[in-house]
Amino acid sequence: MKLCKPWEHNLSRRQWLGSVAAGLGGLSFGNLLQPAVADQLKKKNKQVLFIWLDGGISQLESWDPKPGTQFGGPLRAIPTSVPGIHISEVLPKTARQMHHLALVRSLCTKDNSHSAGVARIQRGDPKNRGVTYPFFGSAVAKLLGPGDSGLPPYIWIKPGSGGFKHQDAGFLGPKYGCLAFGDGKPPENLVLPNSISEEDNQARLLLRKKLDQRYAARRPKRSVEATGFVFDMAEQLRKRLDLFDLNKLPEKDRERYGNHDFGRHMLLARRFLEAGVTFVKVNSYGWDTHGDNFNAHMNMVPKFDQAFAAMIEDLVARGMLDNVLVICMSEFGRTPRINGHVGRDHWPEAWSLVMAGCGAKRGVVVGKTNDKGTFVTTEEYDIGHMFHTWFTLLGIDPNKTEYDNDGQPLPIAHPDCHVVKELIA
Amino acid sequence: MNADAKTLAKQFQPKQTKVLKPDRQLVTIRFSPCGKYLAGGGFDSIIRRWDVAATEPVELPPLKGHGGWVQAIVFHPDKRRLFSVDSWGQLFAWPYADKNPQRLWSVDKAHDGWIRDVAISADGKWLATCGFDQMVRIWSTDNGKKLGELAGHGCDVFSVAFHPSGQSVVSGDLKGVVKQWDLKTNKVVKEFDARIMYKLSRLQDVGGVRRLAFDPLGATLGCAGTQPTVGANVQGTPTILLFDWQTGKVKHKMTIGGNGDGFVFDFHFHPAGFVMAVTSGNPGTGKFFFQKPGDAKPFFLATNLPNCHALAVHPDGKHLAVSATNPGSNGNGRQLKNNQYVGNFSPVHLFEMAGA
């Protein structure tokens, strides 16, 4: 994975606003060929929770166990709430939520390196058209818009540094990048300094609006609206700083998600989904288990299991799973072969993801691998198939919707791939 | 090298004699007390047996019935029984010297999940097991009856050993805590601090006390593992801590190699006062070494055996076996040989110690 630049780690509110405003054009649907589609989408209030297990969770120690076989490893499989579907024993809580989930066990993708794989998967592996495609989060931010929450349309909750990640947006332009909450904290300097009172702040905002009006008289309307929008968004986020304070939630909630980074970040993700953010990405790092793979999975997967199952349970309880598309995946799976360091290496040939909600079929397994888990025995699905499927679930027809890249029409999903119909309810 | 070490190096210089080639990977190997048999527990839930008394080792019919990995095996000191545990929570007893051994008894749910280790008391009456379910349990070797349950670790328990006196058992966990349990009261007597063998790296608890062993007199407790620096592709320096049994304080800290060399997977005390150990780290790296406690360097070191996971010492003290890994065991993506996707295996290297 490309390393972050040091300056990206200290992006202040001012820099963030500046970065967003820099690529103006406004958070509108102007780059879609069919603006009418955008209005329809906006009304549907679809949302996405995208959970990224960076480095590559082992499919054999999670969604596609092969106990008692040559490459099956030491762990057992357990039954789930759906008769006939078994997953790894380290996912007991998720097993009880299986009737809400769809497993895809027939992913076969192309890259076995992190550096190429992360971007290729998250951009949907488009055909090379001489442009950099947006990450799925940026694409959804573009296609569905920010909704009515007033909050940024694409946020990323992750360990480590935060800031505005404009690179995700590709040719859509920086405004569709993501706002990363490093360690689940709000952007630096978002909180007003003690020296500025609320009255002072309101006076500042009023002054800005007046200056904007004067500025607007001599500038294109679109630019001015966008500038105003991002300031308003920052102001809105500032008003919702309560979202970051998990201590206000019942102790039981925090316990259910787990007393670890991933649990806290998933709980925060739930808060932002409830607040109406369109696309919430949650990252967990450290899944590149070339060494000590089994102890790592026995240790980490239960933590994932706890938070993931709690999230599904809560989305169901709140009636949100009908509108929130939940996706959990990595850049690839892990080799069936167990290396001398008792690890598994990178394996894009036959791996799995789990998804749920937003009209996805529930309690199903799509695709199959052979008895040893080495290769796919049914139709192989690349990430392009998944993009077609996810867009369809979000109410966006991937065959009819195109990006307008300054006059260049571009498909939103790989034209050689198609929707996986077995995943659509 | 000091004079003592030079003397030891002359006396205990392993020379490889043969290589056994099971077609799968092994977790552990051990010699029987009579010295005639070598047994190995595998990733394929099978216990392999070789008759190593013959001029050429002969592979005997395997012991089948386990699930997952056969994680650890231990021989009874005199009753011709072998006890084995697996990653699916099962504990079995076998008449290992029979031509086609049938299980003597079995405990199907000895632990909930992966049993990490099994040890036997010096008098052969008791077994101790430990596992992922955070428990240590004591069993009768006669019939597999549970005699005791030692709770309190609060995390995965990786290793267990009986003190030679038979009064205590020790257990080492993922977070580097070693507990000494009184077998009369089943209470913790004291703890040994091996927490340098643990690190929280992102979500992952890395490391753990992977093996425990006592010197023949029971005056020193050895704890083996790694000093981890990072998880995922786990990196760390192979380490053995030698504790004074009475005071609980560290007498010696032995490290070998660097950050990529991983774990000390197995080790034993030699009656002559040195430690014999094997390591495995990044694919291709492995060390087999002898070192006297207090010395800065080993007096014997072999680095040509990739990823060594087990070391067995023959009862005659002159023969050894090291379970390693085939070269070229790793690699990303589709790597086919003759259009087949092949797995790795564990060559077992047999050694004789010249001069011993």
Integer count of domains of chain B = 1
CATH topology of chain B: Methylamine Dehydrogenase, Chain H
Strand content of chain B is over 45%
> Strand content of the residues of chain A, in percent?
15-25%
Helix content of chain B: under 10%
Distance between the termini of chain A: 35 Å
Low-confidence stretches of chain A: 1-30
H/E series of chain A, N to C? HHEEEHEHHEEEHHHHEHEEEEEHEE
Count of runs of 4 or more consecutive helical residues of chain A: 11
The assembly state of the depicted protein chains is heterodimer
**Largest contact between chains:** A-B, 50 and 50 residues
Number of strands of chain A: 15
CATH superfamily of chain B: YVTN repeat-like/Quinoprotein amine dehydrogenase
Question: Treating each run of at least 4 consecutive H or I residues as one helix, how many helices of chain B?
Answer: 1
Net shape of chain A: globular
Number of strands of chain B: 30
At the first level of CATH, the class of chain B is Mainly Beta
Features:
heterodimer; A: 425 residues; Alkaline Phosphatase, subunit A; nine-stranded mixed sheet; two-stranded antiparallel sheet; 15 strands; disordered N terminus; B: 356 residues; mainly beta; Methylamine Dehydrogenase, Chain H; four-stranded antiparallel sheet; 1 helix; globular
